[in-house]
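Please review this one:
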Amino acid sequence: MQAVFNQAVAAHQAGQYSRAEALYRQLLEQAPTQAVVKARLGILLAQTQRVGEGLACLAEAIEQLPHESELVLQAANIATQHGHTERAEEWLRVVSELNTEDASVLEQLAGVLIGNHKESDALECIKKLIKLSPQNANAYNLKGLALSRLGETDKGYKCFQKSVKMNPGQLGAVRNLVLYGKKRKEPLLDKIMPQLERAVQQQGGQPAVQMNVAYILAMYYENKGESQRSFRYLKMANDLNRAGYSYRHADTQVQFAALVKGFSREFVQQFEGQGLAEDGPVFILGMPRSGTTLIEQILSSHSNVGAEGEIEDLRKAFEDRAAQVLVEGRDKCKWEACLQVAQNYLDSVRGRQTAPLFTDKMPYNFMLVGLIATTMPKAKIIHCTRDSLETCFSIYKQNFSGSHSYTNNLKELGQYYNLYESLMGYWNELFPGRIHEANYEKLIGGAEQEITRLLEFCELPAEKACFEFHRNKRAVRTASVAQVRQPIYKDALKASSAYKAELEELIKTLESGEGREIPA
């Protein structure tokens, strides 16, 4: 068996994944409890894009060898890289207990805790990290991020300053210093930015690094009011970002068409009144950068409302049964699948949320309004709207993580926005009176009236805290974190006005309605 294992490892190291996998599985057939073989197979599966299977194998290996810190750490690294942050946190906690003096493990754990919305736990971890490694610049960057998300923006900013002083080349800390210091004069940045400009203009640099630097420069020069210079770097960043993936608007049209067909008027009417009785969810949806964070900040200031933020529970529950939900015919089976998606979603959220009402502000839930409205008839649906050009320009300025593949090309961005409007138009016709529009410009122009309307729609008694939402100290994790810590934020109303020439293609696409057709 040792000879076969050696052959498997050699094949694995040589990149002969099929042969290595076959040999690993052969060994496990002979002796299913070999933890080392299971671990090697798990790593291979993750390397070949079968991450779920790979993590399952690694979990079995760790169960047998719980004190093998190198194995647990390797598994945690794989989980982190592929976005399985809950699993990564579990394993990193194990490693940190096995190696209490390992600063690198604490640093990684702190980052994962912040990613998992556990800022207070992260601060405890960072406290230990700084004690072990007082010159760790990223420790102060992570501390600043956790503090800022918890509303301690001044303390957070000082941490970013300290981090950048310790390591001016740490792009994440530089970005945070720009982002959270929008109206502050910062000599540190004035020294660093010329160096970054020279670096980004050099040929042969790594595209990912150049892209991140360009986004930082765009933010910095926008803050200084140098719009043309800012946009030059913004376009560079988006072009580099766009070059890294494939996207076709026609594919999105087909996706939206499937949702419309799946929730036809006939299907919705057939099962009207047969949904779940849960009245807890308040869905805040729409395009990104349309005011969803502001609306959640207002509602979560109420004593009866808990804030979940941008959670993916509904998307994951839907994807697990999308084939049954969107299948043609067999309406009874479809309906049962829809109910199961809704129940799985509610079970998931209610496992951590105890407030009578809770907000789910995942913007892309606008695609699933049909599912929400039919299966959860008591749920509140709030559609956040904002001037189309301002929405799209704000999206174009963001370096989003995850899947936002339409955002980096002005024409594709305009087409996507037009298509989104078509889908929301369909939902509004299908569910009259179910969807409350929360318009950003109206809210800015008449906050008291609009907040009152919002609370009435949610059947919530008015509370003073909702009108003083900026005092809410809940964790905010989106790009709007700085804005919602202030009273009504008016700076973004006409942010695009200085960029009309640069945004000509976007403006033309929005005005023409190009790309808005949902295929029959």
The mean pLDDT is 92. The chain is about 60% helix and 5% strand. The first strand starts at residue 281 and ends at 286. The radius of gyration is 25 Å.
